[in-house]
Amino acid sequence: MKATRAVGLERLEQFLPHAGIDYTQGRNDVPGVVSGLSPYIRHRLITEEEVVTAVLGRHSAQAAGKFIQEVCWRTYWKGWLEMRPSVWFRYLEELRSLRDRMEREPDFKERVRRAEQGEAGLECLDDWARELRETGSLHNHVRMWFASIWVHTLRLPWQLGADFFMRHLLDGDPASNTLSWRWVCGLQTKGKVYVATAENIERYTNGRYAPHGLLARDAQPVTEEFLIPQPLQLAPPDQHASGERTLLLITDEDLSPESWGIPRCDVAGVVLLDTAEPSDGVESLPMGWNRKAIDGTVKRLESEFRHPIPRLQGGGESIPARLQAILREQGANSLSMMTPPVGATLSLIEPILEELSRASVSVRKLRRSWDDAFWPHATHGFFKLKERIPPVLKELF
Ligand SMILES: Cc1cc2nc3c(=O)[nH]c(=O)nc-3n(C[C@H](O)[C@H](O)[C@H](O)COP(=O)(O)OP(=O)(O)OC[C@H]3O[C@@H](n4cnc5c(N)ncnc54)[C@H](O)[C@@H]3O)c2cc1C
User: Fold this and answer.
1) 31, 36, 35: which is closest to 15 by C-alpha?
2) Which residue among 49, 74, 78, 285 is best mutated to probe the pocket of ligand 1, counting the most ligand atoms within 8 A of its Cβ?
3) Are 347 and 392 found together in one domain?
4) Nearest CA to ligand 1 atom 17
5) Which domain covers residue 191, as residue numbers?
């Protein structure tokens, strides 16, 4: 699977005939009828808006309703976390302390190791752990079963399962992953736990697995002392001022600057903040995918903009100074970027932006109209956002 926008668009094209009734009826089967688009959407090699536009060009909103709803689950999770960033930082903190616990408690560490290596002794879970490690992907239903068994049957902390997914999924996403794990535990919808059953697994794997008598049946919701914070107000995005010469700063969070709404004549240049280098020199499957997605984007944009694209590596101290030098060289009056959502890239870029602001560099923090239209509806449960899908789509298209 090539990590380029062109291949993402090809995959979308091939999936389009199936985005209606086939998807509605077949999406829960494993392997089933699904698009496989998530690694492309994750880095916005292709965007939610593009995907939904293409689907609506082929099917009625009613026929493609289920598919559009699933795309909007991603939008919902992104908006939900954007308004509650502390849930992400809390997860990272808990993860650190669980890693310390693993060092202190060898038996605990061994239980986690076995679950990750596919040696837990439960055939389905072991196969899925290996599949995840080998392919960087798992079907949605399998992710739900896996998380449920990890938490409720193996009784391992959800944060370590979420981390295992993040280290191996090509589409690993701070919002979709963390919040889906929390949802399985009953932490997102208080008291509502997702419990995988042998009957359900047997039915949707067409009899491939039937772990009767092996799974926890009466799972209790996981509890936490931390209260879910009230949603923060989203900061309004900046707008591009027509005629302003601007330098586009791209990151792995949005690799399609062509659709940022900035006219080509206003683009003074493009620069990449490269986050794809592994800090310990070991490249995992997702890192490799990420690197290829970035390389492919640079190649595509260099040929489109007919300009070499400088790559700024990691979070080094010299980045703000280098950005200012590039701004001067390219004769740009501002820097424009799609603000990364909550996650590692945002944490990396925030100190850079602070330094640029101290140096009085104009930074335009943009947001895609898709996010801008949907995110404010992610204040409560998914159903509040779901009700807004038809009017928002009408407004957008
Ligand atoms: C425990 C758990 C962890 C998950 N971790 C991630 C993750 O790290 N990254 C991620 O992108 N998705 C995650 N998901 C959601 C979902 O499993 C994947 O998006 C989906 O399996 C991707 O396959 P697809 O592209 O074939 O999806 P399709 O069914 O073809 O759906 C189309 C697109 O809609 C979005 N989507 C579909 N279902 C969901 C969903 N339930 N939640 C959020 N978005 C959805 C994805 O962008 C997907 O590409 C997780 C789900 C669970 C239960």
Assistant:
1) 35
2) 74
3) no
4) 140
5) 88-204
